[in-house]
Amino acid sequence: MNIEKISQLAGVSKSTVSRYLNNGSVSQRTKEKIEKIIKTHNYEPNRFAQSLKAKRTNMLGVIVPRVDSFAANETFKGIDKVLHDSGLQSIIYYTNQDINREMEGLKALFNQRVDGIILMATHMTAEHMSIINSVDIPVVIVGQFSEGVHCIIHDDYGAGRKMAEYIARYFKDDLLYLGVSDTDEAVGIKRRDGVLDYFDTLGITCKTAETSFNYSEAFDDIGVIFEASVPEVMICATDNIALAALKHAIERGISVPDELSITGFGGYNTTNIVTPTLTTVRFGYFEAGEKAAESILKLIDGERISMIQHVGNELIINESVDKK
């Protein structure tokens, strides 16, 4: 009899059994199930291992880049659900998309002796990795990839290709991809490259421009673009940018999708509320948060897990593309 067998019999995770054995927080119902199994099988836990784990704080650090982001909020909801169900609490460290504050957050949370850290990274640098490698607690990255650290990543490149494949059914020219800075590897590089690489395979030319994740800044940049020329199709790197483009079109009397087709990425709730509804790629942000929390709990308990875990996405076809 061991922790894994107890978890199978009780129908709970090994992390939950481990927390029970170390006097952590578990529900009364779960506690009774585990106690019954232990008593039935005369299980005696390893007291030395327990003494090592007794130093835990049952607190996890979560580094969040934005508070006004649908993606970040949905990811945190997934994290919070798993932590709440597991009886752990989170300390949130807000960075405002500042990588220096991300690194400050890693150090600050480690100094507070949290049991592990989940980092929703803006992008990863050598300095990030230096700090992560210097601490003796597990760290899981969400949304970005870095060699040598556990990562939960979205298939941004595949999402880009998926959108380009859909657009190519109806349009062959006068296309614009409105992206963000390539300092964000996932959205700024991989998502853009997925779109452009697919168009390249068909010999389709797609112009590019750059803006910000921020709605107001994107709105201003789109105004400048429209002053020069309104494309037939605008593929926006995020739903936020696409919504800014849609507002500009409405204000300028540009018919969407008859005169201008607009698409985004994200699958925000608002994309089904606006008129016309927005064609987009929906990412599993909540699922990513759940995976991150489940992964950090396993790592804290000394379990081995995959270094990279992928989260899928889905093309959502709505009304903002003119299907000629």
UniProtKB/TrEMBL annotation:
Pfam family, one: LacI
Domain HTH lacI-type residue range list: 1-54
This protein's UniProt keywords: DNA-binding, Transcription, Transcription regulation
Keyword Ribonucleoprotein: no
Matching PROSITE patterns: HTH_LACI_2
Domain of life according to the entry: Bacteria
Molecular function in Gene Ontology: DNA-binding transcription factor activity; transcription cis-regulatory region binding
Protein name per the record: LacI family transcriptional regulator
Organism: Salinicoccus cyprini
